Hints:
Helix content of chain A: 10-25%
Oligomer: heterodimer
Largest interface: A-B, 52 and 60 residues
Radius of gyration of chain B: 18 Å
Amino acid sequence: MALDKNGIAQRIAQELQDGFYVNLGIGIPTLVANYIPKGIDVEFQSENGILGMGPFPFEGYEDADLINAGKQTITTMPGAVFFDSAISFSMIRGQHVQLTVLGAMEVAQNGDIANWKIPGKMVKGMGGAMDLVASAENIIVAMMHTNKKGESKLLKECSLPLTGASCVTKIVTNLAVLEVVDGSFKLLERAPAVSVSEIQNATEGDLIIEGDIPEMKL
Amino acid sequence: MINKVVNSVEEAIDGVADDMTFMLGGFGLCGIPENSIGALSQSGIKGLTCISNNAGVDDFGLGLLLQNHQIKKMISSYVGENAEFERQMLSGELEVNLIPQGSLAERCRAGGAGIPAFFTPAGYGTEVAEGKEVREFNGKPHILELALTADFAFVKAWKGDAAGNLIFKGTARNFNPMMAMAGKITVAEVEELVPAGTLDPAQIHTPGIFVQRIFQGKYYEKRIEQRTVRTKE
């Protein structure tokens, strides 16, 4: 069965390693914080100026001066720190953040990502996404395998304006875990009870399938 | 001590005029200079270029200046929360320059730090790079981004003293410190204005040298854009 958004987040959380500083984008990536594996310590960075971000506050404890990059009210963890936007992006561009998880509208088999603009429609802006993808060594895309029309979001080439070129390393979708290797998508894992042919049918880009593809363990 | 205190928001915005470039601090509605924006919306000036990470919402923040058609051009990284903004942009009334958030922050910082331009990897290979000089450093392409400055910078802090020293609260700091540096005239409004000597010099975020005018703000609404809570288990 294909994963839901929480399932995607749960699978991505397995990529967290002890001591990682992690930036989570808006949407599915935010959910990753709910599934931190036991026994490891990670800190979440939000580009509006906090490291050590905690969960949403209990009702009545919301603070207008304490939000994440999605403008949601949040809390702090012990050891948290606030800083300005220039310092925040110094952490990001300077590769002090070990893992970036973000959503995408399209990913291409060379690692290009498009997630900020649909020409002719309302343009909301790239926010911090271009800085994040241009610098991070380890970028995981969290998204549905296909769009609302059922079209593949894993393409030979992005049709939408790029956010970054050749930068994505791994993609976790509702159907599969894939890696960008030598200009192709390499299939690493399939979602529980999802067949390789289902993944092939939902993937427009070149897919490398080597041997038996294991099921994700969640 | 050089006294930066002005007695009212009207005095604080004295000298603003048509066609000026302003910087306005804040991320979303967090840490925005509410009092200054309110006074600017009453001032009747127009043709403004506003540099701000976001554009407020329809009826708050920079949305107030948009409603009055005072803004000619916005330089921002994310503008997705504002229907009037969308309408003005699609109709061509409003010119919009979208730039990566980290580049926006650094361009303001550079403007205040006497650095005319810098190379960054952000935006390479995208439409942001169009027309910009590209250079490779350590085998990786970077694009040249120019510093930003402004006729006025409007910032908001939690506490400030008469010397213009500022302390921010939580994530309300965001773009305020860099914009304070990059304004020819920087106007700081604070929730609590204290006498010089009251704040611990080691705890100050923005030194008063970057602030030309400071005043005690009033009636802060501090609106929350996305109130999100968890329930007790």
